[in-house]
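Lab notes, practical 5.
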Amino acid sequence: MISGAIRPRVIALLGPTASGKSALAAALAKRFPVEIVSVDSAQIYRGMNIGTAKPDANERAAIPHHLLDLLDPDESYSAARFCTDAGAAMADILGRDRTPLLVGGTMLYLKALREGLSDLPPADASVRAEIEARAAVEGWPALHRELATVDPETAMRLPPNDSQRIGRALEIFKQTGTPMSSQLGHRREPPPWDMLQIALLPAERSRLHENIARRFDAMLAAGFVEELVGLRNRFKLTETMSSMRCVGYRQVWEMLEGRLPKSELRDRGIFATRQLAKRQLTWLRGWPDIHAVDSLADDALERVVNLVTEHAFHG
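Output from the prediction step:
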């Protein structure tokens, strides 16, 4: 970077599920010339609206949103593709003298966008299909043992049934003849902009849990189960697909398959969402260069507005 060069500013509003990111982002959009870029690995799927708390038509008409409804739920997505899509959206926004406001809780996506990705080969559908065909016969634990022989470092950190990551690691080895673990240090250049990172960290975990329960109840009342029934009728979905492994959808799928009593759906869905929030909070507490704001505080919006004014729009 040239010393003294002015770099574009980007804002990231992060936080666990049900912490109020969307409402706060909408409030910011009324005060600043921002456009929202979703950082959500579930909202990219068309038709998955209720269970992802996706912004509705009115919200999207009032504020420009990017990276929603990118693909059908039977398609795959990756952090690498997110970086490409987000980079294009942000360049477009910045090119119109507006500011990208990244909003979401998929921390892996934001980490990849901020730090750059390892320069791994792109996905190969034919190689992946071969691996998945073998897994259908031999089982993923058998492929995990195979991975342990060619890439023990990666195998050590993956559970034996992590089909997505085991498949990807084997795919990379078959493509390159080199373990994925040995390629992870070769990172692409990080993006050429400065990022103001704000995290909504609720001070009272119990109140976040109340919000999670309230939102899950609202999803069920709005037709969450019926939404997934319709998706299963429209697409050839399997429960191992990334879309169907999303929190909430996984539990509804299990109920529809008869493995989860309907009477237990609510509690299991709320518990799974709490676990997701816990993982997100763990990510955020170790996140560098972040401004933490208690999302439950009465002055949360005022504090975020002040941060944005000072760091993104000052002068």
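Observations recorded by the TA: DSSP finds 13 helices and six strands in the chain. Confidence is low (pLDDT under 50) at residues 1-5.
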